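Minutes, project huddle
Topic: does the predicted pose make sense with uridine-5'-diphosphate bound?
PN asked that the exact inputs be recorded in the minutes so nobody has to dig through chat later. Recorded below.
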Amino acid sequence: MRALITGGAGFIGSHLSEALLDAGHHVLVLDNLSTGSIDNISHLKGQPRFEYFIDSVDNEPLLAELVDRSDVVFHLAAAVGVKLIVEQPVHTIETNVHGTEVVLKHANKKKKLVIIASTSEVYGKSTDVPFREDSDLVLGPTPKHRWAYACSKAIDEFLALAYWKERKLPVIIVRFFNTVGPRQTGQYGMVIPNFVCQALANQPITVFGDGTQSRAFAHVHDVVGAVLKLVGEPAAVGQVINIGNTEEVSMRELAERVRELSGSTSPVTFVPYDQAYEAGFEDMPRRVPDLTKVKAMIGYEPRHSLDDILVQVIEYFRKK
Ligand code: UDP
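Predicted holo structure (tokens), as shared on screen:
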């Protein structure tokens, strides 16, 4: 098949490009390099089944042409990373809402299957852990910019499901939970690359808040593998599906593990949220997926433990 990946030069997009090429498919990447990087796809450039376009999904004539040439569209282009979202809320809302709007509009013309990359952030402040796809979404108030990300992604989900219901456009919505691995940058605030870079430089590892908040991290290869299987699964169409890992870890414990596995002498320091992000910042205390649905659908089983992930990321940054 020929696949269009918006955001294909991003962290997840570049791994997805690689996996599709390895499986013998054609890949068209559309990426404006806002948070993606040409370095992520430079090793793919020479491949005959790979093409890339450095442009935005806002370029509708180009988007229309690329959608037309594709059998399936993976829509990954988005503003991501809590730090970026807090610093650039206008960009976040416009990119996430408008991008999905135009991708769905053009895919609908010839009913091309669209995979919408959503996020566990949509569960917001819910404490009903583990999060199931049919759980309520609990967002904070609008003056707290963090929630603009969840809200923009929730709108994307509503719109995609509306296209499916009303216009029979096949869509699959995947909610990614803290996807990590080689090539992820710490530039937009993501915790694992940040901790690893701090540890390798023997600088203080900055745990935000009191470090009791927890996450469950999934290796990008597990996540991409699940996405590819879902594309071949008719029962996935019109569905919202969690993808992640259930190995929960607190940020305090994560800092200790990074320090230990990297052989670092860094001290672990605690930075108040107000200083790390902005005054009144709200974090979520726990975030773990319920994976019942994806397991039943495609027999998904994450293969990488947190320690595997950390060892690989440490190795990646050491080489870099
Ligand atoms: N975090 C941290 N130190 C950092 C970066 C992030 O303690 O240098 C915390 C952050 O406050 C959150 C968790 O790590 O509680 C995960 O943050 P990330 O931005 O990676 O993903 P999120 O789950 O917030 O989308």
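Observations noted during the meeting:
- The CA atoms of residues 178 and 217 lie 5 Å apart.
- The chain has eleven helices and 13 strands.
No decisions taken; revisit at the next huddle.
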